Amino acid sequence: MNMGYDEVSPGYVGYHPIGGGSAMMGLDALNAVGLKAANYADTSGNPLLPRFTASPRRPSPSPTLKGICSAAFMMANQEQWHHAHALVKVLREMLPKKPGFPCVLLLCGNREDESLEILRTGLADMMTPDGIGRRIEIYGREHVTDTKFIGERLLALCKEYSAEKTSQKAG
């Protein structure tokens, strides 16, 4: 769903929430730090597998987005490993074209440990040994309701990415 993105406003990010209540919490997290959702694609309710793979792509097509947030701010009952596989597939397609692009991923709930391992393993070559990527951060239940933390992490990564892009243009 397009959220009124205007291609020139700063601070817009792609948003992939997982669940209705989670979507609202995530929007609050983004808005609290001055980021806005350009668009979002929710995958809740155990949809069919093709929707899992298509949905994470929807928030990421614009070349002017500052980052992506994919978050399940509540303990989701759907199988989180579907989300993990889809996110790995999409990020492996997208990130080589946008080195350093900020991504904050929060998966928690059913099969959380397996899902987090899928993300960490699938994105390992894009991440540092401590599990934090160049600008990919993966979180689980320790931040399940910590909207402030998630919003602040994405904002910090977006600012870093924007500064890098500005210095590349100037140099």
Strand content: 5-15%
Spans where pLDDT lies below 50 across 5 or more residues: 5-10
Helix residue percentage: 40-55%
Order of helices and strands: EHEHEHEHEH
* Average predicted local confidence, pLDDT: 77
What profile does the largest beta sheet have?
5 strands, parallel
Derived from helix and strand composition plus strand pairing, the structural class reads alpha/beta
* SS summary, helix count: 5
Rg (C-alpha, Å): 15 Å
Number of strands: 5
Query: What spatial form do the alpha-carbon principal axes imply?
Result: globular
Distance between the terminal alpha carbons, to the nearest Å? 37 Å
Give me the side-by-side strand order of the main sheet: 2-1-3-4-5
Write a compact overview of the structure shown.
The chain is built from five helices and five strands; from the N terminus they run E-H-E-H-E-H-E-H-E-H. The chain has helices at residues 20-32, 49-54, 80-94, 112-122, 147-170; strands at 12-17, 36-40, 68-71, 103-106, 136-139.
